[in-house]
Amino acid sequence: MCGIVGALAQRNVSEILLEGLRRLEYRGYDSAGVCLLDSDGQLQLRKSRGKVADLEARLAGSPAAGRLGIAHTRWATHGAPSDDNSHPHMSGDIALVHNGIIENYRALRTQLEEQGYQFASDTDTEVVVHLIHSLVAGGRNLQAAVTAATQQLDGAYALGVISAAEPDTLICARSGSPLVIGIGIEENFIASDPLALRQVTDRFIYLEEGDIAEITTGGIAVRDRSGEEVSRPVKKLNGSYDAADKGRYRHYMQKEIFEQPQVVEATLAGRIGDKSVLAQALGARANEILPEVQQVQIVACGTSYHAGLVARYWLEDWAGVPCSVEVASEIRYRKAAVRPGTLFVTISQSGETADTLAALRQAKELGYLASLTICNVPNSSLVRESELSLMTEAGPEIGVASTKAFTTQLVALQLFCIALARINGLPAAREAELVDALHKLPDLMEQFTGLDSRVQVTSEAFAEKIHTLFLGRGVEYPIALEGALKLKEISYIHAEAYPAGELKHGPLALVDGDMPVVVVAPNDELLGKLKSNLQEVRARGGELFVFASPEAGFESESGLTVIEVPDAPESLAPILYTVPLQLLSYHVALLKGTDVDQPRNLAKSVTVE
Ligand code: AGP
């Protein structure tokens, strides 16, 4: 999705802006631009379709410098990727960058065209800069004009605005799209993600919905939607994680797959004892709320939704608590019937996914017991707006394809499910068994990442294929869904996942020698049923690739390749079997030569609807 960086300092900020854009590249984008106010008081605009490196090349040919500037990476929504549609957009001596979607842009455009404004792009964003310009022309200063303009906007926005007439002012505003202010020493910054500014500061103000901030060389003034000046807390980010560092790995995705043993351990740390999930694992408020929970509604998107589907099996099996799981973009547009005592759970890596956030906001009107978010980004919108939060400790995830975020979500969900199950009568011996398995998880994760070279060999059978099928049963069905999503996301091979028992109800018609069928086959109570389903595939000439431990009793033969995985406790199987499927998609993408970390058309943080 689009990314914003801005800076006001006593030094040239062009390199700070470019470094910020580089750090936002992981979010997915198709063009980039920068606008700096130079020492002659002229706005210098440079923008380019393509990568930040293309913008840098343009700047090398036509340098620009200044101590006030804004920059942007664009992920096209209105208007194709092009130089003209890239941000910043300008109107006279005002320049603006925008994340989000202005829903009433057509009406505003007509109104502005009637006033004589000419449009240089097809974007929704350009109306905002002309609107601000018209308000400044009417006598307002920049801050007052941005405030008045936002009152006319429907939709979502994070804005960064500068004007040649006010060389010591940077204005920013947010509603529906994230924005932070980074605080330096006699210099301040804005960004859509703190990661963009970690090279210059570790202190941040997280703007709230409707906030408008005026950043001057003298300080920062934040006003809320009603125009009242408000004080927002300054948060210090811990850790020295350098997102720009791939270390010895070729891609972020590869690095993130191999980090899983450590981040899983970090997610468990301080949350489990020898035989039980610790009372403080979910926080003091949770201990008050969880005993009231009668049902659970889980809401998420994409990979995070798959984590929710896995949790449903655990919740109903271990806690006996009914659970529904729904994608956020659907639940937010239907009238959900809410039973008393229903806990609303969101799952999100970024904590900023527009649909999930909108579903949470709507849930607050619908009588849910309380809200819990399982999230990877402290201070994100979902964390700030939920009553309870359980953080995954995955660290920043840069690859667009979610890997370590997913497995740490499963770990956090397992802690939540065990805690709720204990309240609902889970025998202590069973809890001890589940917790004992969790203690073994980091080591087992290490062993599963050790399947890399075996999976690499297997990937060769997929690189030339057009379609694939993923099968699982029970709690492994969501893992098959996740495996298929990973493959399609980064290799662009069409992949479908089915519960294996559904094959004969339709998808079996697709099976032939050109359709590899990937099977997740842990040694569980459904194994016998699964084996019968696989016979149906073999009988139609389908080629099977089965991930199974030796105990499952598979042997490779013509048309059946067994990728042997370590034996593991049943409760951990969904977490562990995810790893070889991630590796499979990674190696297939390598063979196909696709952009592993920034697959086409996708964005990391989906902050628009
Ligand atoms: C995962 O590989 C995807 N890139 C995507 O499905 C993602 O999980 C989804 O957009 C939800 O994002 P979130 O976890 O940040 O809310």
From TrEMBL:
GO molecular function: glutamine-fructose-6-phosphate transaminase (isomerizing) activity
Pfam family, one: GATase_6
Location in the cell: Cytoplasm
PROSITE patterns xref list: GATASE_TYPE_2, SIS
Species of provenance: Microbulbifer halophilus
Active site: 2, 604
Keywords: Aminotransferase, Cytoplasm, Glutamine amidotransferase, Repeat, Transferase
Ranges of residues in domain SIS: 278-426, 458-599
InterPro entries tied to this protein: GATase_2_dom (IPR017932), GFAT (IPR005855), GFAT_N (IPR047084), GlmS/AgaS_SIS (IPR035466), GlmS/FrlB_SIS (IPR035490), Ntn_hydrolases_N (IPR029055), SIS_dom (IPR001347), SIS_dom_sf (IPR046348)
Assembly and binders: Homodimer.
Protein name: Glutamine--fructose-6-phosphate aminotransferase [isomerizing]
Top-level EC class: transferase
Top-level taxonomic group: Bacteria
Function of the protein: Catalyzes the first step in hexosamine metabolism, converting fructose-6P into glucosamine-6P using glutamine as a nitrogen source.
Enzymatic reactions: D-fructose 6-phosphate + L-glutamine = D-glucosamine 6-phosphate + L-glutamate
Domain Glutamine amidotransferase type-2: 2-218
EC annotation from Swiss-Prot or TrEMBL: 2.6.1.16
HAMAP family for this protein: GlmS
